[in-house]
Amino acid sequence: MDLLQGMRVFARVVDCDGFTAAAQTLDLSAAQVSRLISDLETQLQARLLHRTTRRLRLTEAGERFLLRCRQILEQTDEAIAEARGAHLTPSGRLRVHSMHALGVLLTPLIASYNQRFPDVVFELSLSQRNPDPLEEGHDVVIAVGETLPDSQLVAQPIGRLYSVLCAAPGYLAERGVPQHPAELDQHRCLRMVEPLYEEAWLFHDAHGEHCVQPGQTFLTNVAESMVKAAEAGMGVCLLPFYTASGPLAAGSLQRVLPDYRLRERAIHAIYPSRHYLDAKVRTWIDFLRDELPALFAEHEQVLADPRHWAQ
């Protein structure tokens, strides 16, 4: 039998002080209620009620069981209400993973989202890889790349990522400003070593594709470290556009070859496929799709300003 149903019927019989009255509130017959109580006693191998023609009386075992029943039923009702409301009201812990630099960029958006939905607790983890949400327990993974996950996951596109070429003004004053990707062979090219960056730099313009092979002068897998190396005059580097905008605006770096575009990559919000999507996941993804373009546009304005280009 359904033990939880039996517990509910047992508690209602006690509250109504009889099978008939309980049956009326449960939309059951008195015979069905009596059979459910008998089945419950059989399953528990204990008598819960003393039955007479006039009234019911709890046994000692019934009194103890009733106390536990009420606790369990209360907790169960709370859990059901919470689960049913999870797709309506954002609350609870939201576990989000992102690539390091992109996650740092998203932090102000997290603060804005949290002002709108204060009952959501963010747990943001950052690394230089795209983990599997199912294996590692993330609610949402902000992933970069064109390869979409398997059918157990949903991938919502939320933006595009591209890189720009930068160098310190002092370095460019000393070594000269390249006017074509082929001239980068005469420069110290610093290399990002992480999945988003291939060994070769592929530049595109109206005349086709131009391939540059960076050297081994400096290698790192963290964009912020690459910024420091470039600011120190170590050479020319590629940076994600949102990482480059700050030092470009500050004048510590200048954009090189602004007429050439490197390959873009898609940014996806990836989450496990569910029939009933949790409200905190749904509202966070909707928030990203609404707010991220404006945030990207602020950075792209800096990149498009010729004042920050190397002349």
Would you kindly provide a written description of the structure presented here, covering whatever features stand out?
This is LysR family transcriptional regulator. The structure is a single chain. The mean pLDDT is 85. β3, α5 and β4 form a beta-alpha-beta unit. The protein folds into 3 domains: 83 residues, Winged helix-like DNA-binding domain superfamily/Winged helix DNA-binding domain (Arc Repressor Mutant, subunit A); 108 residues, Periplasmic binding protein-like II (D-Maltodextrin-Binding Protein, domain 2, 3-Layer(aba) Sandwich); 101 residues, 3-Layer(aba) Sandwich (D-Maltodextrin-Binding Protein, domain 2). The protein is built from 10 helices and 15 strands. The chain has 311 residues and is of the alpha/beta class. Helix content is 43%, strand content 24%. α1 packs across α2, α1 crosses α3 and α2 crosses α3.
Strands, helices and their partners?
Elements: H1 3-16, H2 19-26, H3 30-44, E1 49-51, E2 56-58, H4 60-85, E3 92-99, H5 100-116, E4 120-127, H6 133-136, E5 140-144, E6 153-161, E7 163-167, H7 169-175, E8 189-192, E9 201-205, E10 208-212, E11 219-220, H8 223-231, E12 236-240, H9 241-250, E13 254-256, E14 261-262, E15 265-272, H10 279-303
Parallel strand pairs: 3-4, 3-5, 8-11, 8-12
Antiparallel strand pairs: 1-2, 5-15, 6-15, 7-12, 7-13, 9-10, 9-14
